[in-house]
Amino acid sequence: MENEKDRFGEKIGVRFSDRFSLARFAYRRRDVGLAEAAHTHEHLENSLCESGRRSQHLADAVLGATDGIVTTFAVVAGAAGASLSSGIVLIMGLANLLADGFSMAVGNYLGACSQQDFWVEERQREIWEIEHIPQAEREEIHRLYRRKGFEGEILEHIVRTITADKERWLEEMMREELGIQEERIAPLMSGLVTFVAFAFAGLLPLLSYVVAFWNPSLAPSAFAVSVG
């Protein structure tokens, strides 16, 4: 199946970087064979960690870019309303990019660190409870799956299977009881992605003023171009 996927990708000139791009392509073509290739055991195992990181970085980029373009345009609009020169608009806009972008990046970094710290603390608490009050924790599993509609011998079998392995038991408590899971993200990368997206998008409303700064004859239309 893997070779079939690679040959198909070469044939149509598409490079499938991961199983998700392959799965999306297969869905658009309604191709069952390609969909099966994207769901092989090897693909599934390799994609578990990467999917979380990718979605988180996408969220960081969207957050940074949206805030960057809006706040910088607000500075540009205020400066234009005050009839300030292109040079002053650039200074104010760049100051906003650096200060606000750095603030958002640090905030995202600290937020990611806090999420990870919370997960570790709650995990340690669950480990302690499983070790010291296993019967109460076992009853938690029993109640959780009874709420899902399991009962009788099937329910008892599920509870025995889960609680027979402490690591499985722990992960089940974290996910089902607390509703939290490990944040597989790098706080530093999260902050960096936010800053880069903020700076890149925030530069867009300033581009017309950069041109106007070097060519003053274009200054009267700089704000209209920035709005566009």
Describe the structure.
The structure is a single chain. The protein is mainly α and 228 residues long. It is built from eleven helices and no strands. It has helices at 2-12, 19-29, 32-38, 41-81, 86-132, 134-147, 152-163, 166-177, 187-203, 207-214, 222-227. The longest helix is centred in the middle third of the chain and has 47 residues, at 86-132. The model is unreliable at 4-14 and 43-51 (pLDDT under 50).
Furnish the topology, listing elements before pairings.
Elements lengths: L1 H11 L6 H11 L2 H7 L2 H41 L4 H47 L1 H14 L4 H12 L2 H12 L9 H17 L3 H8 L7 H6 L1
Helix pairs in contact: 2-3, 4-5, 4-9, 5-6, 5-8, 5-9, 5-10, 6-7, 6-8
Keywords, please?
mainly alpha, 11 helices, 82% helix
Q: Radius of gyration over alpha carbons?
A: 26 Å
Low-confidence residue ranges = 4-14, 43-51
Mean of all residue-level pLDDT scores = 80
Order of helices and strands: HHHHHHHHHHH
Main sheet, how many strands, which sense, barrel? none
Beta-strand residue fraction: under 5%
Q: Report the count of strand segments.
A: 0
**Inertia-based shape:** elongated
The helix content, as a percent range, equals: over 70%
Oligomer: single chain
Structural class: mainly alpha
Separation of termini? 48 Å
Number of helices: 11
Give a concise summary:
This protein is an all-alpha fold and 228 residues long.
